[in-house]
Amino acid sequence: MTDARPDPDALLAALQKEEARQQRGKLKIFFGMAAGAGKTYAMLEAAHQLKAEGADVVVGYIETHKRAETEALLAGLEQVARQRVAYRDTQLEEMDTDAVLARKPQWVLVDELAHTNAVGVRHRKRYQDVQELLEAGINVFTTVNVQHFESRADAVRQITGITIHETVPDSILDLADEIALIDISPEALRKRLAEGKIYTTERIETAANNFFRTGNLTALREMALRLTAERVDHQLQDYMHLKKIAGPWKSGERLLVAVGPSPFSEKLIRWTRRMAYNLEAPWLAAYVQIGPQPSGEAKKRLDDHFALARNLGGEVVVAASSSINEGLMRLAHQRNVSQIVVGKPLRHPLRNLMRGGSLVDRLIRASGDIDIYVVTGDADAQTEPPSKPAPRYPQRHSGLMQYIYAALVVGLATGINLLLLSTIGYRAVGLIELLAVLLIAVYLGRGPALVAATLSALSWDFLFIEPRFTFIISRPEDAVLFVLYFTIAIFAGNLTAQLRNQERHARHNADRTMALYTLAHEIVEAPDRDAMLGAVAAQIGQVFDAKMAILIPDTLNPEQALLLHPASTLPLASKDESVARWVFDNGRPAGRFTDTLPLAAAQFLPLNTASRTLGVVGISTQQNEALSFEQAALLETFLNQVALVLERELLNESAQKSAMLQESERLYTTLLNSISHELRTPIATITGAASGLHNPQTNANVAAHNQLIGDIQSAAERLNRLVENLLDMSRLESDRLQLKRDWCSVGEIVAVAVKRMAPDLAGRPLQIEIAPNLPLVQADFVLLEQVLVNLLDNACHYTPANTPLVLSAQQAEQTILISLRDYGPGLSQDDLARIFEKFYRVPGTATGGTGLGLSISRGLVEAHGGQLWAENAPDGGAIFRLSLPLTTLPPPVREANL
Amino acid sequence: MSVGLSLLIIDDEIQIRRFLRIGLEANGYAVHDATSGHDGLQKAAQLRPDLVILDLGLPDLDGLAVLARLRQWSKMPVIVLSVRDSDHNKIAALDAGADDYLTKPFSLDELMARLRVAQRHSYGPAEQALFCSGNLQVDLDKRLVSVGGESVRLTPTEYALLRLMIQYAGKALTHQQILRAVWGPEYIQETHYLRVYFAQLRQKIEADPALPKIILTEPGVGYRLVEV
Q1: In this predicted model, what pLDDT tens digit does every residue of A479-498 receive, in sequence order?
Q2: CB contact at 8 A, A813 and A754
Q3: pLDDT digits (tens, 9 = 90+) for A218-243
Q4: Which residues of B touch A889 (CB under 8 A)?
Q5: Angle A432-A434-A439 from CA coordinates, rounded to 5°
Q6: CA-nearest residue of chain A to B84?
């Protein structure tokens, strides 16, 4: 482990830290050993200096404690109005975070970082307000005393005897860009106290004799200095990483602390955090669940411990296992842990002997090359109510009824045995009793099994073993039998119950896996997003027995309020919606059972992916209780899945969009190329011919004059046709095309189209074959006429001038089939395949078409529910065929009443 | 032949006005023009023109509204100009009392023909006793129809149709106008009657029923009988 090269991961981490820091506002902490050290004063002085340099500095919240010199410094600084919060009978003042965010100054001063906000303010703690300000890019000056840091609270309590309730997580220190230690000697501080510069006169004496004792102050000062020194050391490390200076790289230590519901765990967590910080190692808090979930007080303490560990920068992991040391070792190996921290057991050594040594002994034996730290509980922790150690075996809580059932079963077995005694003898009786004990173990649990074992042993002795009806055992072999029976019954009962419980536990795990699997399956199977969210709502509601709300941003107006998805089962008040909005904007959980906006009716969790928040889920259990850690972890897994699927769908959508964009880009280019040529040619003809008409010489020549006028006319007609094509195309493309269906006679349509094309058809033999009694068809006369005109126009263009055309119409079953046959060169295979594509033009043909006519025609025919296709006639030439469905027949006609 | 007739053009496009003015003045019309609906209504009232050419797409008033106001006090012939793809506008204009319509772009010859027809019908339906077009001869007094000298038997409904078309020869009649006149107002939606009866009629009077020359179909609008 003496590799001198910089570790790439560490380098990356340092760079990321630096990058995140650059986007965030800067945080400067004025840090002191105790109240009165002059932190606020120093902060105000720094603010004045910044202001003098032209920076935009405002006061978010300053507590002057009526100290005159501090108040004097406050003058001249802009103060953001505080918010007033009604609390019972009084009004409390808190920093108005939203007002500061709206004001968006360069720097804001926020005093007393560890302050706990009044109920009703968005965050529970002021440091959370500060984090929000920093994330908004606002630089923050703040003050805090050493005793308020989570990791020091324990030590401070031990030294001063005062329990610190207002704490901030140590991770805040990592956020700080600069830490200014406001140091003052204990003597000077006591002098300031005596002069009344810290507290009002009546409190001076109490303070001087308690917290402000010289011994306390010295210890606090050392703590403050040490914290600062550690911090400086860290900055040096970061700097070395960033500047790629190879140095004393850490060897990848990783700590794991075993925690449980015991109050002692808190101390272990703090201890581990300090240790990890000094080692610069990541650390995990591990809880091994070996039985049913802890409930009530124990559950609350366990959740608190998890929260503490997270606050201190640790990761929380949970494993289910049949024994603590096995679970711990498994986690340790999975996560490459190098050191394990456990508490020193308070259990009587004799009990440990029975179990093959204490947890620690067994852990050490199994640990291999992992170091084990054993940390002692302190006096305080022991005075707390003795916590039951986590049970070794998972057990069901057996109620009184179970014991009564057990007694009844033993009684029943004994009764049967009394009847059978004469036949089978008293030894077989013992085996029957044993069977009863095992059954009790399976169905009623460990406690009842042990009771049953005892009861049955006694009744066996009393009722069956000679001399009967006494507890005396006369024969030595009976005595041996009795002792053996008792031992076997206890052991077997115990073992059976344990097996049974493990099975139940396994089933529980299987249920959880099944729930996850079902969810994953349903998410994947759902045909669209709405169905998917519906499945999620149903599944989560069922698994957690909760009502839930899904909120997603309006795709059209992402800035607007989130939309409550119809699958939601939880009605939301507008207050809750704003909580959801906050969660969406900040990507962090909030609401009930959290530190942010805890007054909300439900807990709100973000649907986060690596890059963004896609939605918010609100959940409220039927029992209105916080989710257990295990449930919360499962929910998180659920939501991660949902977020991933949502993300995937969004990505798909945008991929589709970009594909469509590309396609339309391509069409656009083709269109431009084609159109610009097609537009310019007739325009050039018209301008050229017009200028020719201006010319007196050409004008005098009558033949030339007429020729030019003819040119202008035909060019204009060509332009007109082009524009009509383009308009038709755009109508078709935009889906704005509305058919004006009416009863049409195909013969009439043909006649009108032929008449319109008469100038182009001149000199060409045209045969029209309309079958007699062709039924009327529901269609848009004008559009079908356009189709026929396009087909005729095409035929005129692509076949030699005097070749004949045949236009026919007949009924074919439930369709009307219109065909235009030409005697031109026919179509190549490539043409047949592509001729209806937009802008496709048969290679080598003269200009004059846009390549749109056939494509439009097909669109128009398809809008009628018909088909348009091309084929080659067997004896040469092409046939374009158009089929129209005959859905209904017109009602009968009647003569007029004349 | 139309010398001396006065004509008002209501159109906001200067090029159209100019081209119409040049063409119409050359044909002996006295041409006035107006560039907006309000302007047009005012000038129509002041000048009392013999004919009006009205563009349906005007900047201030809808052309149909101009037509409706004009019809409140005058029966002067009105020809409306419209662009393709607005069949409903054409029909609405004809139903609102326009005498004819032209789809842009159009030729001067077409316009002159329409103006002549409109002028002829400006005092109600034509009341000549004998009508001839190509091979077709119709004696309206004696109810006799012959094609190329051969007498043709028409059903009463066919005859009623033909008579109506002859009365308004040269003018486009909408489906509804025809249905109302021949079958009655409760039949104005039954356009398939027209498809059937005009097909029968054409079989009897047209030289080539597949390519009719006398009774023409006006796509999406109605029918027009022309004198060949």
Answers
A1: 888 888 888 888 888 888 88
A2: no
A3: 888 888 888 887 777 777 766 666 66
A4: none
A5: 95
A6: A724
CB pair distance less than 8 Å for B196 and A893:
yes
- Chain A 451-490, residues with CB within 8 Å of chain B CB atoms: none
Residue A408 CB-half CA count within 13 A: 7
Secondary structure of A390-439 in HEC code, one letter for each residue: CCCCCCCCCCHHHHHHHHHHHHHHHHHHHHHHHHHHHHHHHHHHHHHHHH
Q: Which parts of A838-877 are beta strand (E)?
A: 867-872
Q: How far apart are CA A199 and CA A206, in angstroms?
A: 10
pLDDT at A387: 38
Average pLDDT over residues A155-167: 81
pLDDT of residue A723: 84
Task: Quick: pLDDT tens for B107-162.
Answer: 888 899 888 888 887 666 666 788 888 889 999 888 999 998 899 999 999 999 99
Distance of alpha carbon B79 from the chain centroid:
8
Chain A residues 709-728 with a CB less than 8 Å from chain B:
716, 720, 724, 727
**Separation between Cα atoms, residue A603 and residue A596, nearest integer Å:** 10
Q: Which two tokens stand for residue A682?
A: 């007739």
Per-residue pLDDT for A388 more than 50? no
Strands (E), A655-702: none
Q: DSSP state, A835?
A: T
Q: Contact A227/A152 with Cβ under 8 angstroms?
A: yes
DSSP secondary structure, chain B, as one string: --TT-EEEEE-S-HHHHHHHHHHHHHTT-EEEEESSHHHHHHHHHHH--SEEEEES--SSS-HHHHHHHHHHH----EEEEEETT-HHHHHHHHHTT-SEEEEES--HHHHHHHHHHHHHGGGSS---SEEEETTEEEETTTTEEEETTEE----HHHHHHHHHHHHTTTSEEEHHHHHHHHT-GGGTT-HHHHHHHHHHHHHHH-SSTTS-SSEEEETTTEEEE---
Residues 118-177 (B) with a CB less than 8 A from some CB of A = 155-157, 160
**Which ipTM did the prediction report?**
0.88
B110: contact with A, CB 8 A cutoff: no
A736 has a chain B CB within 8 A of its CB: no
* CB pairs < 8 Å spanning A and B: 69
* Pairing assessment for the beta strands A283-289 and A315-320 based on DSSP bridges: parallel
Percent of chain A surpassing pLDDT 70: 89
Cα separation, A792 vs A786, in Å, equals: 10
| Average of per-residue pLDDT across A118-145 | 89
pTM of the model: 0.48
- Say yes or no for a CB contact (<8 Å) between A755 and B216: yes
- B160 and A896 in contact by Cβ < 8 A? yes
Tell me the residue length of chain B: 228
Q: Do B217 and A751 touch (CB under 8 A)?
A: yes
Task: Please list every residue in chain A whose beta carbon sits closer than 8 Å to the beta carbon of residue B87.
Answer: 740, 782
Q: How many residues does chain A have?
A: 898
CA B53 vs CA A67, B59, B128, B173: distances in Å: 92, 16, 27, 18
B85 reaches A (C-beta below 8 A): yes
CA dist A146 and A123 (Å) reads 22
Of residues B105, B199, B210, nearest to A716 (C-beta): B105
| Residue of chain B minimizing CA distance to A737 | B85
* A residues 761-780 lying closer than 8 A (beta carbon) to B: 768, 770, 776
Tell me whether residues A781 and B193 touch, CB distance under 8 A.
Answer: no
Four-residue CA torsion sign, A133, A134, A140, A144: positive
How far apart are the C-alpha atoms of A26 and A19, rounded to whole Å? 12
Interface membership of A518 toward B (CB under 8 Å): no
How confident is the model over A75-92, as a mean pLDDT?
85
**pLDDT > 70? residue A356:** no
